[in-house]
Every structure is written in structure tokens, then in C-alpha cells.
Amino acid sequence: MTEPEQQHTQFERGTDGPKVIVVGVDGSQSAYRAAAYASGLARRQNALLAIVYVQPVLPAGSALGAPVADTTGEIAEGLIEELRKNSERIKGIWDLRWEFHTFRGDPFNGLVTAAEELTADAVVVGASESAGHRIIGSVAVRLVKAGRWPVTVVP
């Protein structure tokens, strides 16, 4: 028997890591922690950070005359204003490429659509703060079970 030929590995510059990281935000503290974690990951990997807010569609609320679109639009505007402020604070210190996107639907399907359309390499979400998710399952658990991308759940 002959010994297998030794393969020489050559050092490779750059990264094989994620190029697009999707993070779901909804204004909760858990989502802000997820955004902070995803920002650091995107900065270190030189990846694009796609910050996604999924505007809920509540047909029952709109049937009762509730201004659902106005409220969710205000939330999206508040989130992007917060992101712009934070982006200005780190300008010149860290280089971070980011985009803000809104999608409509339930959080799980909205994040799946976002990740598919933006060709995400990774998805980051905050852990659920709702006790009701023990029954129907949290968005994070459903994303992990979908098994399409690496999913990081930030507590």
C-alpha cells in the first residue's frame, strides 16, 4: 500500500462566510438585541445586513375600521429613524452596509419571503417574549425547523 498523497492547503484571503444576513425587527427588546448581534456579525464578515420589519396583516382589525396600515407604517418609520441615528453614531468607527426592508404578512412567512428574495445566507431573530408561543411555536423555532438557512436566535 502506498501512502495517500499529502494535499497542500493554501491560505485563502477573504471569507466564505455569509454575504447577506437577514435580521427580523419588530421594536421589541429581543429584536434590538438580535439586530445588534447581526450588526456585529455583518461587520466582521463584511456582509450586507438586511434589516426586515414584517408589517402584520390583520383583516379582522381592518374590518372593524382599525387603522392597521397606519399603525404598522408608523412602526416601520420609527424603526428606520432609530436605525439611521445608530448608523450615524458608528459612522467612521465601523463600516457596516445595511438596508431596511418591509414585507407584509405574518412574521414567519414575511421573514421566509425576505430571506428568499434577498438570497440570505443567514437569518437572525430575537427569542420570543410571548408566553403564547409555547402553544403555537415561535417564529424562531419555525425558522429553525424550516431548515433553509442557518438561524441564530438571540435571547
What keyword list fits this structure?
single chain, 155 residues, alpha/beta, Rossmann fold, five-stranded parallel sheet, 6 helices, 5 strands, globular, Universal_stress_UspA
The general outline is globular
State Rg: 19 Å
The level 1 CATH classification is Alpha Beta
Q: Give the spatial strand order of the biggest sheet.
A: 3-2-1-4-5
Q: Spans with pLDDT under 50 lasting ≥5 residues?
A: none
> Which percent band covers the strand fraction?
15-25%
Helix content: 40-55%
Structurally, the number of domains stands at: 1
* CATH topology title: Rossmann fold
Sheet having the most strands: 5 strands, parallel
Strand tally is 5
How far do the termini sit from each other? 54 Å
By secondary-structure content and strand pairing, the structural class works out as alpha/beta
Q: If you average the pLDDT, what whole number results?
A: 78
Q: State the order of secondary-structure elements, H for helix, E for strand.
A: EHEHHEHEHHE
What would CATH call the homologous superfamily? HUPs
How many helices does DSSP assign?
Answer: 6
CATH architectural designation:
3-Layer(aba) Sandwich
